[in-house]
Structures are given as structure tokens and as C-alpha cells.
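Reply to dn_fold:

You asked what the input looked like. This is it:
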Amino acid sequence: MRLTLFTIAMTILLLEESKAEVLPQKNFDVQKFAGKWYRVGLAYDSAAFVPYRDKLRISMGMVEPQDNGNVSMTMWSIRPTGCKSKVYVYEKTATPGVFSYFSTRHNKVKDITVVETNYTEYAIVFKYKKMNREYSQVSLYGRTQKLRADVVEKFRSFSLARGFPKDSILTPPASSESCPPSEG
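and this is what came back:
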């Protein structure tokens, strides 16, 4: 009985440690990471997100490195009132590929880690925040709105390994509207 309890306790500790151990892309290069990205996948562990699951669509973002090492990211998404944009400023940390930003919505600092990218096709990004409990999110970004099946599977596997339930790992459809609108 003691051995079984010990085994269960060690398993839980190892699982918790693996969730917390998220390392950034080796030799991360913010200049190569710059440019247009589409968020084509999302894993989210907040119950408050559930009512919005079916409304989620692929959104577009523009990553722009700043002279001080921070990154500006403008994200566009379709809302009932039309195409909306939001600008985030991710502050660099001592670790390349790891950023932090202040969420005005949650009034908390959140950590952003670029876990894996090949710069020309996809990126897996992990977001973490601690509020009344720990929350995390995994996003899959692509340079195009459609990625290879093995890349999507890599995103799903990473999310499952971090403890996200299968039904919280989404690959939303593209929007029928152009957002931001194409320049004529």
C-alpha cells in the first residue's frame, strides 16, 4: 500500500514538473521570427473560454522587433462588430525566446515562451499566468493559414503533454471575412 501511494505521489510530482518545464527554442532569433503569423491552433485550460470555442477563427498577427529587444505584436480578429486589432508589447527577458507582458484585461504579468519554430512555417508558443490558480495556453502559429498534418500533430502532442484535455485543443476554421481587410 505504501509503495502504491509513493508511486502515485511521484507520478503526480513528475507530471507537475513536466508541465512547468517549458524551454524556449534553442538559439532563438527574434529577427527571423518577425513578420506575419496566423494563429491556427489554440489549447486553453480556462473554463471561461468554453462558451467561445465555436466562435474561434484563425486570426492574423504581425510581429515587429523593437530596437530595445522587446517585440510588438498586433493581432487582428473578427468580432461581431467587425475586424478589431490589439497591440501587445512583449518585453524581453534574460532568456532569448522568453518574454513577459502586462495583461490589462487580467491586471497581471504573463510569460510568453517561443517553444519551437522553424521561422518559415510554424511556431509553438506557450503562455503562462498565475492568478487565483495557474493558467496556461498553447498557440500554434503558421506563416500560412494551413499547416502540414505533422506540424498540427506536434502542437497537439505538446499540448497533451502539458495536461490539456483533448477537447480544449482547437484548430479553428478560417474566417469568411478578410481581417485585416486587404489593401486595395
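Residues 3-19 have pLDDT under 50 and may be disordered.
Hope that clears it up.
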